[in-house]
Amino acid sequence: MQGRIVRIEWAGEDDYDLIASWLKPLSPNAAMTADTREFLTPAKVKAANEDGNVRFFMAVTHDGERVGAVNYRPVNSSGSYSIGGIVGDWQKWSRGYGAEAFGLVIEHLFNGINAHRVEFTTAAYNKETLKILTKGGFVLEGVLRDYHFLDGMYYDRTIWSILREEFEEHAAADAGQFPVIDAIPAEDKEKARELLSKYLANDPPTSLRDFDRRSGRTRSY
């Protein structure tokens, strides 16, 4: 999926080392994602991606630089997903890479796999993510008190979500600046409709045409 400044593409074999390095303990990204005590190996990233527990996508600039990763995983009831992600180099934070990559994966969830609800959780000290969530159509659902420990202090965890109707309203309002790109162009869909209509206009053989004959069949023995 292509955005204005990045595209997202399926994470491949060469990306697992990169993702694990971005989230290594004591890294800026581990602190921002509250994973300072978790040791994530390339093998764990690969296993999660390939068995479907978590789907990883790489955020890639127009010149081919892999600047970050976004992911989603199904949670609880059908149609609900949780998303997460990082921009690998902290010096590239606040450039819009993360916001657009998140937008693309959210668009994929609602328009590609029929999501009903998408959620995101983040620590109350994560300025970069909160800048996205507070203006991206998400709704603050709750606060888990003293959930994270960092720099000698406890911090709350915030829980956000966006429902399908909220996504559609937000997408419609921003359609001029951030149009949703169809996987198959509208003109191709229309051409397919025209071909099917032309075929049916000639009263061709169809499953409906001989319904009476088939429904009236009796066993021959």
UniProtKB/TrEMBL annotation:
Residues of the N-acetyltransferase domain: 6-160
An MF annotation (GO) of this entry: transferase activity
Protein's UniProt name: GNAT family protein
Entry's EC annotation: 2.-.-.-
Pfam family, one: Acetyltransf_3
Sections of the chain in a coiled coil: none
Keywords, alphabetical: Transferase
InterPro entries reported for this sequence: Acyl_CoA_acyltransferase, GNAT_dom, Ribosomal_N-acetyltransferase
Enzyme class (EC, first level): transferase
Species this chain originates from: Saccharopolyspora mangrovi
